């Protein structure tokens, strides 16, 4: 039976995500340049690193990632529930409300209006707007689940539902604050309590926005791109409950060797180590799904983007628990190594997943079956890989050197190296980091040009809101992709 699915709102979210991917990553490239050439701050209070850095993180996380997750979740929940959106007017309120949040961030952060909290820098009026829009998004998503025409709830919707609930809970709790005026507030927490609550939010923003949400998206699109069912549907459910059970406790590994009680530090370390199990189980599940169609994998760069993302996910979830261990943390924490770890995950796992979805999803949303240029997709793939490798390796080397130099002592207990010595050691690696970032952002530019040319072509497969299907296989979700 033909359903009147709402594809227009999905298109808006996906194209907006694509725009913010370029904006957020370009700001990141500017920041990388400023670290090596400080003159690029231009002596401007609005264009210096401290003002632009939260704009970069907010643009990538809340612009690129949240928009693609909102768009794909609203598509997937319709398709797998065999029903239209709960309320189309509410969907547009969510879209425009979220874009207002991003515009306000673009204005206020360079002006210096900030709470200074990691991934939660926006001031209290914008925080309230975020909470209201997020609750509307939750009502829209779960309302659609509630009116589904099938009994089964596809596993992707489990991950989307989990990320919606957890982000609402931890964002509101972390951003409880006392306003002073329209542009300044102070947290209701202080000292150690503030740090604990902040990293409960900060680490789980990574765990549920950049991990659970992306996993939900991939559990739908990887089988689609592979033209095969999920390798183990049971394992995907175990993956979900493992992340929900362990991830929310792991945030205090950011506070090892701090004034946070030892038992709470140890809890974060233990939970971080336990995360290996569901993380690698999920990575194995996606990997085997892709490998189940080896013939297509040999030449399909969308599948190769997904494969790369899964491998980077496995690497990042191996390195992260290691960095939480005390002796490892002593060397690595607060060094460039951590920045390398974060970006190998963000660029390798999150961005590569997003690129794969852009390449697979955008042409089909507009009625095309092929990209304008497969060669440019191939070029983008290698630009991205070269960029990540250069970027991450440079920061790993810089971080290891920093950690060693900060800890090295003479027999009398004095430090062998000064802080300036460590900065001089790191400097050339900042240049290498910029080069890696330039490769990566150049690939994004190639992708956007390729997608633009693709959408400029005559429509090959006329689609309507009611008949959109992303696979040549006409079987409904629930038959082929949920085994």
From TrEMBL:
GO MF, one example: cytochrome-c oxidase activity
Main localization, broad class: membrane
Pathway of action: Energy metabolism; oxidative phosphorylation
InterPro entries: Cyt_c_oxase-like_su1_dom (IPR023616), Cyt_c_oxase-like_su1_sf (IPR036927), Cyt_C_Oxase_1 (IPR000883), Cyt_c_Oxase_su1_BS (IPR023615), Cyt_c_oxidase_cbb3_su1 (IPR004677)
GO annotation, biological process: electron transport coupled proton transport; oxidative phosphorylation; respiratory electron transport chain
Binding site for heme b 2; high-spin: 341
Transport recorded as keyword: yes
Cofactor annotation: heme b; Cu(2+); heme
CC cofactor note: Binds 1 copper ion per subunit, denoted as copper B. Binds 2 heme groups per subunit, denoted as high- and low-spin.
EC number: 7.1.1.9
Domain Cytochrome oxidase subunit I profile, residue spans: 1-458
NCBIfam families, per database record: ccoN (TIGR00780)
Name of protein: cytochrome-c oxidase
UniProt source species: Vibrio rumoiensis 1S-45
């Amino acid at each position: 039976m033909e359903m009147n699915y709402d594809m227009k709102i999905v298109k808006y979210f996906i194209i907006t995500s694509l725009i913010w991917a370029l904006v957020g990553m370009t700001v990141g490239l500017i920041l990388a340049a400023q670290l090596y050439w400080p003159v690029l701050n231009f002596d401007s209070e609005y264009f210096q690193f401290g003002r632009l850095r939260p704009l970069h993180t907010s643009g990538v996380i809340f612009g690129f990632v949240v928009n693609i997750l909102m768009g794909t979740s609203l598509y997937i929940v319709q398709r797998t529930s065999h029903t239209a959106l709960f309320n189309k007017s509410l969907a547009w309120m969510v879209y425009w409300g979220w874009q207002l949040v991003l515009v306000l961030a673009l204005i206020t952060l360079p002006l210096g209006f900030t709470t200074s909290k990691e991934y939660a820098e926006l001031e209290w009026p914008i925080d309230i707007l975020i909470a209201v829009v997020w609750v509307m998004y939750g009502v829209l998503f779960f309302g659609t689940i509630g009116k589904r025409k099938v009994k089964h709830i596809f596993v992707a919707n489990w991950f989307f539902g989990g990320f919606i609930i957890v982000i609402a809970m931890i964002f509101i709790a972390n951003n409880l604050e006392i306003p002073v005026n329209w542009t300044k507030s102070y947290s209701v927490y202080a000292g150690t309590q503030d740090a604990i609550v902040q990293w409960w939010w900060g680490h789980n923003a990574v765990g549920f926005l950049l991990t659970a949400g992306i996993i939900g998206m991939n559990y739908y699109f990887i089988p689609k791109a592979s033209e095969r069912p999920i390798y183990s549907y049971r394992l995907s459910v175990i993956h979900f409950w493992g992340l929900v059970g362990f991830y929310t406790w792991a945030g205090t590994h950011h506070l090892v060797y701090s004034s946070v009680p030892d038992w709470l530090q140890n809890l974060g370390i233990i939970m971080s180590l336990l995360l290996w199990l569901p993380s690698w189980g999920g990575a194995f599940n996606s990997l085997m799904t892709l490998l189940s169609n080896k013939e297509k994998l040999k030449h399909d760069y969308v599948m190769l983007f997904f494969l790369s993302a899964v491998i980077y996910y496995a690497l990042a979830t191996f390195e992260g628990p290691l960095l939480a261990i005390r002796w490892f943390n002593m060397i690595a924490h607060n060094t460039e190594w951590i920045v390398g770890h974060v970006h190998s995950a963000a660029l390798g796992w999150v961005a590569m997943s997003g690129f794969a979805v852009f390449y697979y999803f955008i042409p089909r949303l507009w009625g095309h079956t092929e990209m304008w240029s497969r060669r440019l997709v191939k070029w983008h793939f290698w630009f991205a890989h070269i960029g990540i490798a250069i970027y991450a390796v440079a920061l790993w080397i810089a971080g290891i050197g920093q950690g060693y130099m900060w800890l090295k002592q003479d027999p009398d207990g004095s430090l062998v190296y000064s802080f300036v010595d460590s900065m001089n050691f790191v400097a050339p690696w900042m240049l290498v980091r910029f080069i890696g970032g330039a490769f990566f952002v150049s690939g994004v530019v190639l992708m956007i040009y390729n997608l633009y040319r693709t959408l400029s072509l005559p429509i090959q497969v006329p689609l309507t809101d009611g008949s959109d299907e992303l696979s040549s296989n006409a079987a409904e979700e629930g038959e082929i992709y949920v085994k």
